[in-house]
Design a protein that fits this description.
single chain; alpha/beta; Rossmann fold; Pantoate--beta-alanine Ligase, Chain: A,domain 2; 2 domains; six-stranded parallel β-sheet; three-stranded antiparallel β-sheet; 11 helices; binds pantoyl adenylate
């Protein structure tokens, strides 16, 4: 595996005839990231993983500063999973002085994550389009865990005719059901224990939905019973052919999100 830091180095490392699979990430790899690396490995000649904690998608400087970083550990994981090129780049490289262009995907900013994280999706859409233009992948891989993000990227690709196929992979969870997240490493043991209320609530919501009851209300009741979990939203939403129950909550100051499928459109 090669680690490259600049756009020029990255492009020099890629054979224009090779089919490239791109996995955009912000690092602090866990098994959720690895599942995307493996999916990319299985269907492309070359796998590129970008590692960039994108300042444009963080509202607060403290959140950006507190985001876990471990490039050496990440490089070891990526190498083990058969990644060919780790594009570990910097804000100077991607947003040089005079940078002025931003991508807004209408609608996403007004819902769910967009309401609680103003500017977040503008940052996500912009960095994803930049990475597609820089890496020119045939396919790019995203996680269902961030369902609204995956749907936004699909909308962006369709609307702007980006020549990349978007693959969305299932959420990887810990044994107790908590969705893996780079942020989980910042939970204290007590908060880690309480955080499992989030997947439990979504599970209860899905069970209620199957009985013809209100999914969001059932999930909200489970969250309300856990004092260490402060919910931000619990809502039913449609993302890319899936009806999902999505929730966000703060647990000991750490913001966690998760979702479960209530119904596939084809089902
Ligand atoms: P990051 O949080 O590092 O996530 C990188 C990718 O891994 C995303 O597509 C995310 O949905 C996926 N992922 C995270 N946890 C997962 C899990 N438990 N199971 C399966 N997939 C999981 O999402 C971002 O970075 C950034 O917003 C990015 C797209 C890189 C743009 O900066």
């Amino acid at each position: 595996m090669r680690t490259v830091r600049t756009i020029a180095e990255l492009q020099a490392a890629l054979d224009p005839a090779a089919t490239v699979g791109l996995v955009p990430t912000m690092g602090a790899f866990h098994a959720g990231h690895s599942s995307l690396f493996r999916a990319a490995r299985a269907e492309n000649d070359v796998v590129v993983v970008s590692l960039f904690v994108n300042p444009a998608q963080f509202e607060a400087a403290e959140d950006l500063a507190a985001y876990p970083r471990d490039e050496a550990g990440d490089a070891a994981v990526a190498e083990r999973e058969g990644v060919d090129v780790l594009f570990a780049t910097s804000a100077d490289e991607l947003y040089p002085g005079g940078y002025a262009t931003w991508v807004e995907v209408d609608g996403y900013a007004q819902r769910l994550e967009g309401v609680f994280r103003p500017g977040h999706f503008r940052g996500v859409a912009t960095i994803c389009l930049k990475l597609f233009n820089i890496v020119r992948p045939a396919r790019a891989y995203f996680g269902e865990k961030d369902a609204q993000q995956a749907a936004l990227v699909q909308q962006l690709v369709a609307d702007l005719n980006a020549a990349v196929a978007i693959r969305v992979l299932p959420t990887v969870r810990d044994d107790d059901g908590l969705a893996l997240s780079s942020r989980n490493s910042r939970l204290t043991p007590a908060h880690r224990g309480a955080a499992v209320a989030l997947p439990r609530a979504l599970h209860a919501g899905a069970a209620a939905y199957a009985r013809g009851e209100d999914a969001a209300a059932a999930a909200q009741r489970v969250l309300d019973a856990e004092p260490l979990v402060v919910p931000q939203y619990v809502e039913v939403a449609r993302f890319d052919g899936r009806l999902v129950l999505a929730a966000a909550a703060r647990v000991g100051g750490i913001r966690l999100i998760d979702n479960v499928t209530l119904k596939e459109d084809s089902a």
